[in-house]
Design goal:
With 226 residues, the protein is of the alpha/beta class. It is built from eight helices and eight strands, in the order E-H-E-H-E-H-E-H-E-E-H-E-H-E-H-H. The chain binds D-xylitol-5-phosphate (DX5) and zinc ion.
């Protein structure tokens, strides 16, 4: 049986927006700001037109902070990379349903190692693509931009999909990623999201701690009132 507690609001800074010359400092900044976890974007230059981090960056984060590491694999062949990311210290591994590899064996492997597993849906992918996985994941991540780059604008047309998945999975962690600010996070919370991944808006904030606090307060209110 799945979990039956109400989802808790979580704020996750995305390390992609930090200064790559000082990655450990970027990890610490998130932890010191009161983030619930740290999000790391792995891009393979094929599934998306950008190259970012490998397992070594996850290892740096793992030895630098105590908060959980949410690792988002934007890769055409995530299965061949999975062991390396698990060994590096990922706490949650997220795989795209649009990737070449079947998510089911990966989700099973992730959970067999005692880690949390999730699937990710691109903005155009319909909610029904998640139904096969609801029983096999700890989290569903809905992209609210086209993956590949930070700093893009939130796609409002994803909001009904958030509600559709929340109705079907009331207790699952449902996260959103891309263009998340205090305002768009609240809109996503009102639709049913409970975890918020934000790069630019948190790392560019004058005070990340204040921004995390404000985002959390708005999301808690929005989620409770929905
Ligand atoms: C986008 C990545 C995001 C990215 C979000 O492909 O998956 O995690 O870091 O960045 P912002 O918050 O700047 O849109
Ligand atoms: Zn991401």
């Amino acid at each position: 049986m799945g979990k039956t507690e109400m989802p808790v609001i979580q704020i996750l800074p995305s390390l992609l927006a930090s200064d790559f010359g000082h990655l450990a400092a970027g990890c610490r900044a998130a932890e010191e700001a009161g983030a619930d976890a740290l999000h790391l974007d792995v891009m393979d230059g094929h599934f998306v037109p950008n190259l970012t981090m490998g397992p070594d960056v996850v290892r740096v984060a793992h030895r630098t902070v105590k908060i959980p590491l949410s690792v988002h694999l934007m890769c055409t062949h995530p299965a061949v990379l999975l062991d390396a990311f698990l060994e590096a210290g990922s706490d949650l591994v997220l795989v795209h349903v649009e990737a070449h590899d079947d998510p089911h064996p990966m989700l099973e492997k992730i959970r067999s190692k005692g880690r949390r597993a999730g699937v990710v849906l691109n903005p155009e992918t319909p909610a029904m693509a998640a139904w096969d996985y609801v029983e096999h994941v700890d989290e569903i991540l809905l992209m609210t931009v086209h993956p590949g780059f930070g700093g893009q604008a939130f796609l409002e047309h994803v909001l009904p999909k958030i509600s559709e998945i929340r109705d079907r999975a009331p207790y699952l962690d449902l996260s959103v990623d891309g263009g998340i600010t205090v305002e768009t996070a609240e809109a996503a919370a009102r639709a049913g999201a409970n975890a918020f991944i934000a790069g630019t808006s948190l790392y560019r904030a004058a005070n990340m701690q204040a921004e995390v606090k404000a985002m959390r307060a708005r999301c808690e209110k929005g989620f409770a009132e929905r």
